[in-house]
Amino acid sequence: MNYARFLTAVSAARKPSPIRILTELQQRSPPSLISLAGGAPNPNTFPFQSASIKVKNGQTVSFDEAAMKRALQYSASNGIPELLTWMKNLQKNLHNPPTASYTSENGQMDMCVTTGSQEGLCKVFEMLVNPGDNVLLDAPTYSGTLAALQPLGCNLINVPSDQHGMIPAALKEVLSRWDPSEVHKPGSTAPKVLYTIPNGGNPTGASMTTQRKKEVYELARQYDMLIIEDDPYYFLQFDKPWAPTFLSMDVDGRIIRTDSFSKILSSGLRIGFVTGPKPLVDRVVLHIQASTMHTSTFTQLMVSQLLHSWGQEGFLQHIDRYVTGCTAICALTGLTAEWHSPSAGMFLWIKLKGIADTQQLIMQKALEKEVLLVPGGVFMINSSDPCPYVRAAFSLSTPEQIDEAFRRLSSLIKEAL
Amino acid sequence: MNYARFLTAVSAARKPSPIRILTELQQRSPPSLISLAGGAPNPNTFPFQSASIKVKNGQTVSFDEAAMKRALQYSASNGIPELLTWMKNLQKNLHNPPTASYTSENGQMDMCVTTGSQEGLCKVFEMLVNPGDNVLLDAPTYSGTLAALQPLGCNLINVPSDQHGMIPAALKEVLSRWDPSEVHKPGSTAPKVLYTIPNGGNPTGASMTTQRKKEVYELARQYDMLIIEDDPYYFLQFDKPWAPTFLSMDVDGRIIRTDSFSKILSSGLRIGFVTGPKPLVDRVVLHIQASTMHTSTFTQPLLQRCMKQSLSSHRVIEFYRGQRDAMISSADKWLKDVAEWHSPSAGMFLWIKLKGIADTQQLIMQKALEKEVLLVPGGVFMINSSDPCPYVRAAFSLSTPEQIDEAFRRLSSLIKEAL
């Protein structure tokens, strides 16, 4: 694949740090070499000495003095090696990506650690999207994605979707505006980027079927588009077997995937991953090198030690334990509303019958009734379009609170009609 | 000040998260309100339970179960409130910024936490710099800044400097190309941004005098420029009293300052701060909201509990001062005939000019390895890295005095052979 055609000018202009080359030289040299080259501070002057983190299963993650010094010092921009290795093995086991065995120019699977998968997403968008570009996505979608994309001045084109995610026939229709044989011509306005959340979408809770993914992939091949597979709820799928991912069918090296540990390990630590073709991951890493420099070494070591002690099996067991707790919510009766039960994630997307726009209802009346939900408009490409939906999260409230909340919502709707 | 004229189109287009408004509503409501609005995961499912971090002075920083739950959950994009409050008080104490008492539109001092001060710098550049813009800085400068700026397609204009930093007369000369009364005209190419590292510059070790800062500030006023004061070695100044900062003289609200704890608390934790006029800090926070979302909620309290002590301890400064003295002493011993340098009053670097060598790139990349000594060829800190440069940068942070001495012996031998 020709990856250069996807890059913005800014991304293409990024260069590796020349000092990094010196670090590599040092690492390849005998210990008798004395380097006064590295600009790192002396970790002996840092006040933290050691750490002990208790894990719920009785284990402990420990940093002795040597580990602590490492945890407090600069590290590689793409991530610490042992965490990257663990994650690459996980990806190979879960998705068996065709690209794992490719050469670099052909899109060899590569990975980097990011400060939350949102940092990865933002840097991927900033790598690919120019003002005026057409970008495809299925709205309603995650408001954080809209916040990252909209300022870039692109033209967000909606692809219709339903409870099974993006509709391939609708995508085909949207794309029919362009001639596939002309997408590489200079000045072509054909979209180069398609974004979707394939499992437990935020806010819709929708999950794509394997068949639909295959059809969408085929269309991406025809029009030579990259697909951004944003999958933070992948590990929150309620039923086995888990759906095959775009990454698992990526014979061309056109999938950039973001994974998150925010929903299963910690949201506040800020740790996520980008998986994609090496030429593109390299660009993201160069941007990281100039901004955050790397995700906190301390955080990576903490998570890495935990993951190594669990192994992949222990990791998947932890997920099982968490996920079985979440399925209780969907017994909604008496609500004058429609919804589809999500098979993954944390959200229920509810259409209120007879209400054209939920914005006013929520922002004014709901407070009086002491119940808060998110008005659906915030997830639309155009947030001022009237939207009859609300998003309810089932992550934080008890079943009793959820029940009471829906009773209040039901009363609210009835009064409004 | 009119801050809107400084923003790129992308920065100006950023909008606050609509969901954030719901969070604020929830916080203002009685506990009987039930919210199904927040999209946060349930922290009871996270595997980490508690933490205990030993500090070298004998203390322990502990996270009990409740503190750990908070540390593992999403938090505000501008930083956790107690850390921000602490830092704002620190800035007021150290710099007494005039802007601390201004209204928001007039550039009230505001702050945010960033994932390293480099994240702050990068987001400030991305907020302000359009392709084709003229940006002023004094090269040689920090290579990370060049890496963040160059891809933005701006035109980096060098302002000459010496061992006391940027030279105001030289800045005046550079600026004389433009008419100060025309800088606000549409299509004006006058620079809007000036960047400098005022203490212990990387790589030069230069520190600006107060007088020079005042003159540079005056020129920034004349041409209505913003000054980015990048000050990661502020806390590594070897002599007291510490120099007044640009922030301390900022009557207009045109200073954006980045502070770092990388050199005194931890580089790997990734924590830094932006201080500046609220309208500009707000833009940076909106970008953070769309990218990292916030600096790790675990890291922030960890750092905060150690900060007060670290800042009042002299041990770190004593260590680096001792290291500097050792390096200068070895330089005097081995390099007197073959090189020139100025002793730095802050930071971690010595900037050495090798006499009779036009360009150190080859010398280092080929010969130095044979002699088993590594230093950074000065070209990497230049706006144009392929220009010949007779300097090398030596760090005195990590090596022992014995290693430094041996390294300079090897360097001396290397230079003599090359001549």
Explain what the structure shows.
Chain B: Keywords: Aminotransferase, Pyridoxal phosphate, Transferase. Chain B: Belongs to the class-I pyridoxal-phosphate-dependent aminotransferase family. Chain B: Pathway: Amino-acid degradation; L-lysine degradation via saccharopine pathway; glutaryl-CoA from L-lysine: step 4/6. Helices cover 35% and strands 17% of the residues of chain A. Chain A is an alpha/beta fold. Chain A has two domains: 6-40 and 74-313, 3-Layer(aba) Sandwich (Aspartate Aminotransferase, domain 2); 337-416, Aspartate Aminotransferase, domain 1, CATH 3.90.1150. In chain A, helix 8 links the parallel strand 9 (193-196) and strand 10 (226-230). In chain A, helix 5 packs across helix 9 (278-290). The N and C termini of chain A lie far apart (55 Å). The model of chain A is unreliable at 325-334 (pLDDT under 50). The interface between A and B is large, with 111 and 113 residues. Strand 2 of chain A pairs antiparallel with strand 2 of chain B.
Task: Give the topology, please.
2 copies of one chain form a homodimer.
Chain A: H1 9-12, H2 18-28, E1 34-35, E2 48-55, E3 60-63, H3 65-71, H4 81-95, E4 109-114, H5 117-128, E5 134-137, H6 143-149, E6 155-158, E7 161-162, E8 165-166, H7 168-175, E9 193-196, H8 210-222, E10 226-230, E11 255-260, E12 272-277, H9 278-290, H10 297-323, E13 337-339, E14 347-352, H11 358-368, E15 371-372, E16 374-375, E17 389-393, H12 399-416
Parallel strand pairs in A: 5-6, 5-9, 9-10, 10-11
Antiparallel strand pairs in A: 2-3, 4-12, 7-8, 11-12, 13-14, 14-17, 16-17
Pathway (chain B): Amino-acid degradation; L-lysine degradation via saccharopine pathway; glutaryl-CoA from L-lysine: step 4/6
InterPro entries (chain B): Aminotransferase_I/II_large, Class-I_PLP-dep_aminotransf, PyrdxlP-dep_Trfase, PyrdxlP-dep_Trfase_major, PyrdxlP-dep_Trfase_small
Family (chain B): Belongs to the class-I pyridoxal-phosphate-dependent aminotransferase family.
